[in-house]
Write a structure and sequence with these properties.
Blueprint lengths: L5 H18 L8 E2 L10 H13 L5 E7 L6 H30 L5 E8 L6 H16 L4 E6 L7 E2 L6 E2 L2 H12 L3 E2 L8 E2 L8 E2 L1 E8 L4 E8 L6 E6 L8 E6 L21 E6 L4 E6 L3 E2 L1
Length: 295
């Protein structure tokens, strides 16, 4: 149908939604509006999104956003600035939705991150980026209701020599989130040292943390990325409602490599997460998170 500017797009989308509803009576339809994907150093994408939200609020169930993790050779830019960039874009869209919602008060509009991925064919740093994506989605679970990983069918790594597939740490991290981080996202307060990559990105916390409460299992799942390049961070994990009991199961993905060297088929047997068990009691659990790791 060709390119359309924002005004023409919303006119088309409104009519398309009418046709969809009339052609499928009795069928529950969910309409995803076209949101931002081309982030230039200007306000064009912000204005596009604002036009779409204003005009399709109450009609569209979701607004889409795309965001890939841009590669860089600088370690802290990769694990820190890129994560803050993602957070900023999510918060801008959330703010636009909430501004319209405060006035219109119709059915809610949510966000779907329908294209996202860390750098392809990467190594350990790409796995940390994957974990930071998931942490962002959990942190904004009140507005992000769908997230579609690009090339999900290629989540298994593939050996270029033999075409054999294997489970890399990226697969293992994806599995940990998808099988364990189920339930209600909690508001997690984090107090730790910070670092800067520029005057704008000046207070990036070394620990990226989310937590989820599984009411059925009566357990809390805590997801932690230690962004520090060189140092483990000893941490007090405190519960302000209730106490810990039993044993805490720990799964961890760590590596000595910080160059994002691609994973290899030959090393596949070493890629399983490290597992351990810790006795838990009272309101505080103390743990030291290794440098550049996901736990």
């Amino acid at each position: 149908m060709g390119y359309k500017n924002a005004d023409d797009y919303v006119k088309f989308a409104i009519e398309a939604a009418k046709v969809m509803a009339k052609s499928s009576p009795g069928t529950k339809l969910e309409f995803v509006a076209n949101g931002p994907s081309n982030y230039k150093d200007n306000l064009d994408w912000v204005e596009w999104t604002w036009t779409v939200v204003k005009n399709l609020y109450g009609i569209a169930d979701y607004i889409s956003m795309h965001r890939y993790w841009d590669n860089t050779d600088d370690y802290y830019t990769f694990v820190g600035e890129r994560a803050m960039d993602l957070e900023e874009r999510i918060k801008i869209i959330e703010g636009q939705i909430r501004a319209v919602d405060a006035v219109r008060k119709k059915k809610p509009m949510y966000i779907t991150v329908d294209e996202w991925a860390p750098p392809f064919r990467g190594g350990h740093l790409s796995t940390l980026a994957l974990a930071e994506y998931f942490n962002a989605f959990i942190r904004h679970a009140d507005t992000i209701k769908m997230a579609n990983y690009t090339l999900l069918t290629s989540l298994l790594s593939r050996d270029p020599k033999t075409d054999a597939t294997y489970k890399s740490p990226l697969f293992q991290a994806f599995k940990l989130y998808s099988t364990r981080a189920r339930g209600t996202a909690l508001a997690t307060a984090v107090s730790c040292d910070t670092f800067k990559t520029s005057d704008h990105y000046a207070h990036i916390p070394y620990l990226d943390v989310t937590s989820v409460y599984d009411e059925k299992a009566k357990q809390v799942i805590i997801n932690v990325v230690n962004r520090h390049k060189d140092e483990a961070i000893a941490t007090d994990i405190q519960s302000v409602t209730g106490t810990f009991s039993g044993n805490a199961a720990v799964s961890q993905i760590a590596s000595d490599d910080i160059s994002n060297k691609p994973y290899t088929y030959e090393a596949r047997d070493s890629y399983a997460p490290k597992n351990e068990s810790l006795a838990a009691s009272g309101t505080t659990l103390r743990y030291s998170f290794p440098a550049h790791s996901f736990t």
